[in-house]
């Protein structure tokens, strides 16, 4: 794994003098110049010669004690240990480089060996042997499992011990680009500006509001916060985490009551995505009810300021039941408003922008049903809008006496927009008919305007239509010629948003980002067409977007389909001659659009000569519903072959070459990673698999695992033989091949992850190690398990930066770039070379 480290030569002379001094003075015998060598080397100093002790002492005195990290006890790999000392001595005397020392150091380390315990899994007359099934512990308390995971973490830290200084430098670079004392763009609502802020050194948000000053007038795109108005702190996440002494903290929902006197929020302090609901009086700060645990995080207020709707989860973490709580009454009296019996359906709640209706949504992967309760009659029973029909999905917005329904079915996969009277929702008028080439993503309604978010050719846009005065609804299809389009010019970007604040506000808030444009907030006046850029996320350290180039190219899949690929590089740093390291990102599932987005942390790579790319592959939603459907069920392999085609295309365009091509994906994107390294291990140098769904077949056969049942409509139900055989042909754990030289792999997981079991990456790493040919070239097969987090890893903004720095250090290490500093004049601080 280690390659030549350019830092060694510059340190050789000084270190050689230190070695000579230690030899002549006999200082290394037991202490190494004040260092306890026996402890540092795990007792191995006792078999060392004087010269070997001198070398060990010189390393320790020079701050290179990591060389001995995780050394096994005497009698294990002693020959490899002597090779380390010989390589270190040669490096200290200038006769060899760091690559030899690092290779020798890694050869000493012994990876954890997961015991093989035969378990036969049978289905459809087929028997699979899973020797690592025992790693699954639903209680997360089995000492043997926890010990194994701890050993994996120790081994991973030891393997990357030589990157610790680089990790710290990368972290400082990333943090140095962040404006720590920052504030979100306020949202104007019912006489207040609501916003969040972060203070210097704070990891979490503080939720605040200030009153809109008297005489401020109607909302416009030019609204600004009046800081002369006193600030009211609604929720300080930093204080909540500190006072509760939590290692994990995440807020689910946060909502003021309609009269703005009470404040409800939900928080997860474990990482398992079970949220506890709290409500407090904003005047006194006192909580007005006992906390309600086990919720999904969704909360909505009735118009009476006393009724609170929330959702609870079942034993499989499925949000399935809506309850109604009355402030001042015990939770035992809470009323069940809605309960979903079908285990393939999940339940959520949200309030319409008009604030007149509370929607209850029940949905599977391909089917949905919406119920509603009037906010001013929260005690009424919910009413269904359109009864569920298999493979028909719809969402609903409200204005006046009408529902605006965005509906998708098999004949209209890209969706169309309809309107119906609330009293007769089945009698609908089509406002925007289905289009083969344009995907209708969602709509945002306000009192006077309809904003339609569309996607065409892989890019997003917004069209704004005026609506009839009063509560009336359009009576015929909308004419696109009457719409005002909000468009952007960059070749690849991400954009989203919706109506802002009060229902009668004419302001549409857009969130925009690209590979070169930091996250931007743009307020658009739907009446006048005026735009105001309210904020561009600050990037400190001299960042200039003009230093970087973003482009979009098209790869040809094996079936001839053109696959869009977005990429970015730094001008004058990337050579574009095929020698550049490149990080290719992919996802490709659930119709999620993996659009081009900005990351200030990514500058650490770009400023070191990397190219970053995103493959917009089938299974995602970048090109519409047809794109998604062509990458699921029995077409799932299109996702993988699209990604491989994108990688090959980038190589053919001389943007990289296989030994410089690294890949990354999270969750379902981790399944993608596992599949493509099995299919084309020769094409990739390294892979980062974040919380990867890699034991797909075993998981989808097991209904006791959260998400399994609902996900049958994404992957197929392997209890049907056709799906079983197909899934078995790509499920990463089931397709590890003995003797194959795989890329370097870093897999991560979260012990409390309810979405992807921690055991999936643990099993994959164990199986890859077991399949490795002892004579094959060395490859890092590493597992990093967060023992106090879930699917989304750590939550503090600085802690997240440390996670990214760790992953980037892994990439730089496997590419032999530990000593490569960012280009002078970049928004990064140069990395001082480590010295022996």
Automatic annotation (TrEMBL):
It is an enzyme of class 3 (hydrolase). InterPro entries: AB_hydrolase_fold, Pept_S9_AS, Pept_S9A_N, Peptidase_S9_cat, Peptidase_S9A, Serine_Peptidase_S9A. Its EC number is 3.4.21.-. Gene3D superfamilies: alpha/beta hydrolase (3.40.50.1820), Prolyl oligopeptidase, N-terminal domain (2.130.10.120). The keyword Mitochondrion does not apply. SUPFAM superfamilies: alpha/beta-Hydrolases, Peptidase/esterase 'gauge' domain. Residues 112-535 form the Peptidase S9A N-terminal domain. It catalyses: Hydrolysis of Pro-|-Xaa >> Ala-|-Xaa in oligopeptides. This is Prolyl endopeptidase. It comes from Chlamydomonas leiostraca.
